[in-house]
Amino acid sequence: MALTLMSPAFTQDKPIPQKYARSGENLFPPLKWSGAPEGTRSFVLVVEDPDAPRGTFRHCGIANIPSDWDALAESADTAPENTARFYKNDFGNARYDGPQPPRGDRPHHYIFRLAALDVPSLSIPGDAGIASMWNEARKHVLAEATITGTYQS
């Protein structure tokens, strides 16, 4: 069985509700996954907007998600300490910041990418940023799954 990722808040290629956008409540949308491959020791999650005017914009990066987790709750930034670690996003915040495309721009695609890793944790500091975390994580990927939502201001 392949690694799969879904959200009860939105479906593939459909709009992300406003409460998960920066102009709304800026809540992290709930996510669920299944089919982690044998040998999974942790997960990472990256949320990116490839349609941003200046290139891919990273809205969220979380590493060291325990291998026995199969979901992230709405507003996952309240996760217990000493577990998942948030990395600095392109807004400069170590948390989730939701969609915020330029007003009047076409709908942007927000890719939620979950990767199963063969290591229990990454030792990259949180202020290193999502790109650095993802570069390190890619060395340990066993499987990936994505779900993409859209948003337009």
UniProtKB/TrEMBL annotation:
UniProt-listed Gene3D superfamilies: PEBP-like (3.90.280.10)
A Pfam family per the record: PBP
InterPro entries: PEBP, PEBP-like_sf, YbhB_YbcL/LppC-like
Keyword field: Plasmid, Protein kinase inhibitor
UniProt-listed SUPFAM superfamilies: PEBP-like (SSF49777)
Keyword Glycoprotein attributed: no
Name of the protein in its database record: YbhB/YbcL family Raf kinase inhibitor-like protein
Source organism superkingdom: Bacteria
PANTHER family, per the entry: PEBP (PHOSPHATIDYLETHANOLAMINE-BINDING PROTEIN) FAMILY PROTEIN (PTHR30289:SF1), UNCHARACTERIZED PROTEIN YBCL-RELATED (PTHR30289)
Organism in which the protein naturally occurs: Rhizobium sullae (Rhizobium hedysari)
Taxonomic placement: Bacteria, Pseudomonadati, Pseudomonadota, Alphaproteobacteria, Hyphomicrobiales
Gene Ontology molecular-function annotations: protein kinase inhibitor activity
